[in-house]
Amino acid sequence: MAYRADIDGLRALAVLAVISFHLNFGVSGGFLGVDVFFVISGYLITRIIVAGIETEEFSILEFYARRARRILPALISTILASSIAAGAILDPPELIAFEKSVIAAVLFCGNIHFFAVSGYFAPASETIPLLHLWSLGIEEQFYILFPALALIGERFSRNLFMIVLGALCAISLAASQLMLATDPPAAFYLLPFRGFALLLGCLIALAAARPLCKSDLGAHAAALAGAALVIVPIITFGPSTRYPGLAAAVPSLGAALIILSGEARSTFICKLLSQRILVGIGKISYSLYLVHWPVIVFGTRLFPSASPTGFGLSSFAISFLLALFNYRFIERPFRQGARLRSSARTLAISAAAIACFCGVSAWTIHTGGFAAETDEKIKRVLAFENYDHDRLYRDRECYLSADQDFSLASMAGCLPRGTGPSALLWGDSHAVHLYPGLNPAFEKEGFSLGVLTASACAPIVAYQTPARPKCTAFNEHALKAILSLRPSIVILSARWPTDEASLSLLDRTVAMLARAGIKVVVLGESPLYKHDVPLIMAKRLQEGDTSRLAKGGADLELDFLRWSDRTLSARFANREEVRYVSVMHALCPNDDCPLTDDGGSPVHFDTAHLTKEGSILFAKVLAPLILH
User: Fold this and answer.
1) CA-to-CA distance for 528 and 499, rounded, in angstroms?
2) What is the pTM of this model?
3) Domains by residue range for the chain, with CATH
4) Each residue's pLDDT tens digit, 54-103
C-alpha cells in the first residue's frame, strides 16, 4: 500500500483539535478529532487486510503481531511513566482507581471500564489520567472483530461485503443517535455506537479502487466539502452538542471525503495536508495523543493555581517533547526492529508485558494503594472518597438517576406528609444533598419537607441538557405534582446554568409557582472546589498544615462561584415573589468556606456534594434564611 502524506496531515489536524479542546484553546468541538482518527483507522486497516488477501499473504497471526508492534510499545511506555507519576502524586483511593484503569487499558477494554464507572458522582474527567484510552479500547475491539469478517466478505463477494458493511454502519449510527435519548454514556463509550466511523473508513477503503471522482473538479469539490465538514464542526460544536450520533457522523463523513478524493487525485486539500510540518506532527500523533492527557491531569494536580494560558502552553510544549521522545526512541524502533521477530514471539512478548502490568496493578489494588503506610488521620479523611451517599440521598427513590422516568406513585414517599405547613425541595444533587440537614431543621419549625430531585437536572421547566435527556420530562411532571400539592414553600437548588435562555426559563418557572400562591426560595450556588475536599484535607495533613483544615478558600473555584452568584442575585434578589439566598455569602464569609464540621469530618465527599455532617452544618445556617 502506497504511503500517503496527506493522511498523516489529517492525523495532525485530528490530534491538534483534541489537544486544543482539552487545553481550552477555544476549539469547542475539538473532541471530534477522535472521530477523524476512527475513520483513518478503519481505512488503513481495511487496505492492509484487503492487500494481504489479494496477494494471498494475509495472516491473522501476523496482523495481530503488527498491531502489537504498532500500539503496545508507545502505550506501555506511557502507562509506565503515568504509573510512576501516579504513585508519587495520587492518594490511596485515587491510586486504586488508577490501577484499575491500567488493567482495563492494557486489556483494551478501557472504554468498557470507564463506561462502567461513569455516573454523576464519578470523579471529574480532568482527574483521571488514562481516561483518553477509551478510544484505543474501541479501536482494538474493532481490530479483533474485523479481520475475520473481512476474510469471509472478500472471499465471497466484495459488493456483498460492502453492502453488509454499509448496513452495519447505518445501524451503528442509528443506534448511536437513539441511545442519546436514553443513555448518552453508552453512546459515547461503547463500540456498537461508535463503530460507524470505523466502518465508514472500511467502506472508503473498499471503494478506493473505483474511480468515484472521475474528474479533477469532482475530486477537488469532494475534498473541499470534506474539509468543511471536518473544520466547521470542530470550530462550532461544543459541550452542549448532542454527541456522538449524527454530530459525530459529520466530521466522519468529511474525513472520508478527504481520504477518498485524495485516493483518486492529488487535490488542493491533499497538498495542504501534505505540508512538512503537518506530516511531522501526524507521524508522532499516536504518541502525542497518548501523552498529552496524563500531562494535563498530573500538571493540573501539581499546579492548581497556574494561569490557564501559561499552563496550556506549557502542557502543549511538554506533551510535544515527550511525544517526540516516545516516537523516536520507543514507538519507531520497536515497530521497525520488531519485524525481525516472528509473529508468535511478538505476541508472546506482548502477552507477557500485559500480564506484568495486570499483576503489578492487581497487587497495588490488593494493598489498598499502599494505605498501610498512610497516617491514621489521613486515612480517616481519605475514607470519605468512597462515601456511601446512596441511602443518604435516597438514590433512585427521591433522587432519580439518568435512566429513570418520573413516577408520582414511586416517589410518593418523597412528598411532604402531615396536615401542617409543608415545604418541597426541587432540583438536582445540589438540592438533595441539603435534605439530610434541612429535614430535621424544618421538623423543629413544624414543617414537613419533601424532595423531588434528579441528577444533573436543574429545576427549570422546559430546560434541556444533552447529558440528561429525561430532565425536561422530569421537571414537567415535578411541576404538576407541586402545583397539585401546593406546599407553603418550594426551595429551588441546583448547579445552575447561567446562560440567558436558561435564566429566562427559570424566571418563568418561578412565576408559575408564585402565581399558585407558593413562596419560592432560590438557593445560590453551593461551594465548589478544584479538588475533592478529602484530598485537599489529606494534602494539608501531609504537609502539617493543620491550621487551615477548617478553611477552604484557597481551593475554591472562586471565579465561577462569584460569576454565578452575581448573575443569580441580579436576577432574583430584591423581588417580592421570590427570595434569593446566597449560599456563598451565608456559609463562606470572605470566600472562606468550612472544610470540616466541629468533629473534624469533611463537609464534602467530593468537589461539591455534602456529607451528612456537611448537610447538617449547612442547614443550621440556611434553614432560618429560608423559613423567616
Assistant:
1) 19
2) 0.92
3) 5-373 (no CATH), 387-627 (3.40.50.1110)
4) 888 888 999 999 999 999 999 999 999 999 999 999 999 999 999 999 99
